[in-house]
Write a sequence for this structure.
């Protein structure tokens, strides 16, 4: 992994997050887990480069995020192999599977002790800045509630500072 300045990123974020997807990983070399996410935002807030990440509390990764200051967002690309990894990590729980072992992902430790993956074309290491809980009452557009209920609980929203960026 080669460290780059986050301001050098020139991805089309709508494509990168919405079509490519990402792995949200929390923890350290002793205990970590990752999950697939296809929702999120990147931007500029509080004079910092930030990402906004949405995680349901019932996800195994959520508990590990709560225990750690940092997390990583890893982008594997658009390959068939990447899609298999994203599908596995998005449908299986870290409570039941060692996802790195099952998918062949090679964990790599970042500068702050977070876990990234050797296969990632881009990894953003992020520090938690802010958290809020979504609730039905906060939705101004009630049609969006269709994403909840039988599909799971409301997301927690994390605003995280992008502290490091790495490319392959």
């Amino acid at each position: 992994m080669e460290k780059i300045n986050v301001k050098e990123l020139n991805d089309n974020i709508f494509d990168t997050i919405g079509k490519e997807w990402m792995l949200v990983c929390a923890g350290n070399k002793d205990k970590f887990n990752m999950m697939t996410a296809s929702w999120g935002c990147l931007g500029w807030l509080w004079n910092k480069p930030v990402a906004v990440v949405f995680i349901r509390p019932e996800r195994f990764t959520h508990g590990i995020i709560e225990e750690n200051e940092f997390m990583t967002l890893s982008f594997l690309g658009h390959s068939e192999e990447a899609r298999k990894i994203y599908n596995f990590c998005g449908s299986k729980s870290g409570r039941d599977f060692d996802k790195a072992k099952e998918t062949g992902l090679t964990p790599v430790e970042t500068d702050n002790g977070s876990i990234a993956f050797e296969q990632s074309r881009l990894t953003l290491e992020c520090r938690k800045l802010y958290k809020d809980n979504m609730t039905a009452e906060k939705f101004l557009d009630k049609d969006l509630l269709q994403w909840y209920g039988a599909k799971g609980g409301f997301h927690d929203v994390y605003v995280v500072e992008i502290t490091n960026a790495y490319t392959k």
Summary: Strands lie at 2-4, 22-28, 31-37, 41-45, 48-55, 70-75, 107-109, 115-117, 122-133, 156-167. The longest strand covers residues 122-133. Residues 72 and 125 are 4 Å apart (CA to CA). The chain has a mean pLDDT of 95.
